[in-house]
Specification:
The chain has about 210 residues and is of the alpha+beta class. The protein is built from 3 helices and 9 strands; from the N terminus they run H-E-E-E-H-E-E-E-E-H-E-E. The chain has 2 domains: about 50 residues; about 120 residues, no CATH class.
């Protein structure tokens, strides 16, 4: 093969390479805008979806119905609750109803010593108080409890005065004295210690006051 032939072949091969490269470059240029356009479309779709989700109405979360607290007249005896324990109180009424006997009480507090002096001074009373005790009754709430009528009641008041050591009477006699069925001391003004067990009054003892 002569030199001219070799040059011709080299030129043909080089031309083919140039054509191939040009074709590849053209294909890339043609594909580039299409790919970019597809990416742009996808991005716009995502933005539209996000906007639609953010503007969608939010379902309200169900909330519990508000409850209105019951209004209790302070002058009406509260329903019996199991306030077990020993309480200092004034007895307001004793009534028979619903097949039982019920006592309405007004809790108070008997103070002695410095507590009595402070409470008396705060109430505008003599301080220290006479006989070193003071009865505080700032809460007029009434409470009603059933009572065990089989008990005996300890009293200190008598028709003639007082018995500091106390004496015992059946509950029926105590009820008759308190309600005025029979004559006796005025027990409506006297404080008592009452003991409540399982929501029922089981012990009643009058507090001796000098």
């Amino acid at each position: 093969m002569d030199l001219r032939s070799k040059k011709t072949i080299a030129m043909l091969v080089g031309g083919a390479l140039v054509i191939g490269l040009a074709g590849g470059l053209l294909g890339f240029l043609l594909r580039g805008p299409a790919v970019q356009d597809a990416l742009d479309r996808a991005e716009r779709a995502e933005q539209q979806l996000a906007a639609a989700e953010s503007s969608a109405p939010v379902e309200p979360t169900p909330s519990a119905e508000p409850t209105t607290p019951a209004v209790v007249d302070p002058g009406t005896p509260a329903a019996s609750t199991a306030e077990d324990g020993k309480h200092f109180a004034y007895i307001k009424t004793i009534v028979d109803k619903n097949g039982g006997t019920y006592i309405t009480v007004d809790y108070a507090e008997m103070l002695t010593g410095q507590a009595a002096a402070d409470a008396a001074a705060a109430a505008g009373e003599e301080s220290p108080p006479p006989n070193d005790y003071f009865i505080s009754n700032n809460n007029k709430k009434l409470r009603e409890f059933p009572v065990d009528t089989a008990i005996n009641v300890t009293l200190t008041s008598t028709a003639q005065g007082v018995k500091p050591e106390g004496y015992s009477v059946p509950f029926g006699d105590f009820q008759n004295i308190f309600t005025g069925v029979v004559s006796g001391p005025d027990l409506s003004r006297q404080p008592f210690w009452i003991t409540i067990k399982d929501g029922t009054i089981t012990i009643i003892a009058e507090q001796y006051l000098p």
